[in-house]
Write a structure and sequence with these properties.
Length: about 475
């Protein structure tokens, strides 16, 4: 037998390698086919080039342009799939631009969008709802920007035009039902609306949410484990405010939750200047009482709550501390043993509680302390001037009224009102109220008849 010539051998080897490729499309062909199939029923798609890398599992489609039936357009500079095409390690989109014409005009752009471990290589970017079965381990978007007209700008701003930009958006554990975490950095927005706040700007340095669940259900049934905001600023026609920080812990599975509000500042002076002229005198008077003439009201608040199980009872403990700088302080502490409905787990019941039905109070105590940081000392001056009387006469009338209410509602109410008058007169700096609650009482029945509470609980009032 004559040996096969080398050229014939090379041809046979080439054929043996090529035949499987001809039998089964490669990643480049599959990507192009999947992209075209995705948009086939929605409009026209143009693709400049699709190629596969020689040395690594990566396929790239370049210069994509989609035109929808109503004139909407989507441009992508590059669509890159890395790893196994059926189970990609990463899908990366670069140079994203989206335009929707018409009255509700929208323009959206992003420098890059990266998806980690998506369950499919081609994603329905033109669909508004999240497809069933699609899961993404991680997502990152850089240089996101949007402009829109004739749309709802959110509560307070109404319908109008707006712009928003985000330096970076990151998320993990995305599915149709939940998001494990979502983080935003460098958010800036501008709205021109006709709502309660009018037009204005918004900026937010950082925001993060964790454990967002129930996305498929009604909005009121959604759950959030944690929320954090930093450096929020709003400068609108009728609201000028800033917030240094907000932290909310809504996950009660570990037995505790809470909220921290840091440096919420309301620029009352600027808001009054922007208010209608006929309202400014009244608003300026209220501002002077609250702020002592500074025109800026600052609020700080810390709230913590936890639960402990003791036999068949659950002990609810909570603390609230609110400070309005140069105005007042408010501290509330509660220690309430309760019996929950039979079979209810404390964490789940407290997280989903919509009513007090079935909750039995087993006694307990609530302590509240109101402190004067300047507000009560300023009240007599304003109140007396508004009535055309002296401060001494106003305070005497207030004491008489406190005694009158005491005759109708009881000595405890009189003690509270007399304590408030003492704070206005500078005779006391704090008013403390201690409540001892009745045992074996249905909480829903107690809350439904608050006027009967003084007869069913013990109250001690102290001015100091």
């Amino acid at each position: 037998m004559r040996p096969m010539p080398w050229k014939a051998t090379l041809a046979a080897l080439t054929l043996s390698v090529s035949l499987p490729a001809l039998a089964e499309p490669g990643p480049a062909e599959r990507l192009e086919a999947d992209l075209r199939a995705l948009f086939a029923s929605e409009g026209r798609l143009e693709i400049g080039e699709v190629s596969a890398a020689l040395l690594r599992d990566r396929v790239t489609a370049r210069e994509l342009h989609f035109v929808g039936p109503e004139g909407q357009q989507l441009w992508l500079d590059r669509y890159v799939v890395s790893g196994d095409y059926d189970s990609p390690d990463e899908v990366r989109l670069e140079g994203i631009r989206l335009e929707t014409p018409g009255r509700e005009r929208t323009q959206l752009s992003a420098a890059t969008l990266r998806l980690d471990d998506p369950t499919r290589a081609v994603l329905p970017l033109h669909e508004e709802s999240w497809p069933a079965g699609l899961r993404i381990a991680g997502l990152e978007i850089e240089a996101l920007a949007a402009e829109f007209a004739g749309q709802d700008l959110g509560e307070g701003f109404g319908e109008g035009d707006g712009r928003v930009s985000v330096e970076r958006l990151q998320a993990t554990g995305l599915s149709r039902e939940a998001i494990d975490s979502l983080e935003l950095n460098g958010v800036e927005g501008q709205a021109e609306g006709e709502g309660e706040f009018g037009s204005g700007t918004v900026s937010l340095a950082f925001a993060r949410v964790e454990g967002l669940r129930g996305l498929e259900g009604p909005e009121e049934e959604r759950k959030l484990d944690r929320l954090e905001l930093r450096d929020l600023a709003i400068d609108a026609d009728r609201l000028v405010a800033s917030l240094a920080g907000l932290e909310v812990d809504g996950d009660l599975q570990d037995g505790e939750g809470g909220m921290r509000l840091e440096a919420l500042e309301l620029d009352l002076a600027r808001m009054i200047a922007l208010a209608p002229e006929e309202e400014r005198t009244r608003l300026r008077m209220a501002s002077n009482v609250l702020t002592g003439g500074s025109g800026t009201l600052r609020l700080d608040a810390v709230s913590t709550g936890r639960w402990e199980t003791e036999g068949d009872a659950t002990r609810l403990l909570g603390e609230l501390d609110v400070t309005a700088e140069e105005a007042f302080g408010w501290v509330l502490e509660a220690d309430l043993p309760v019996r929950l409905p039979e079979g209810a787990a404390p964490a789940a019941f407290l997280a989903e509680m919509q009513s007090l039905e079935g909750v039995t109070l087993l006694g307990g105590r609530v302590d509240a302390t109101l402190s004067d940081l300047g507000l009560f000392g300023r009240l007599p001056v304003v109140m007396a001037a508004s009535q055309g009387i002296s401060e001494a006469v106003f305070l005497e009338q207030a004491r008489t009224q406190a005694q009158g209410f005491g005759m109708m509602l009881g000595p405890e109410v009189e003690a509270i009102l007399t304590g408030l008058v003492a704070m206005m007169a500078g005779e006391a700096r704090e008013l403390a109220v201690q409540l001892t609650l009745p045992a074996d009482s249905e909480l829903e029945a107690l809350s439904a008849d608050p006027l009967a509470l003084p007869e069913r609980l013990e109250m001690q009032v102290e001015s100091r």
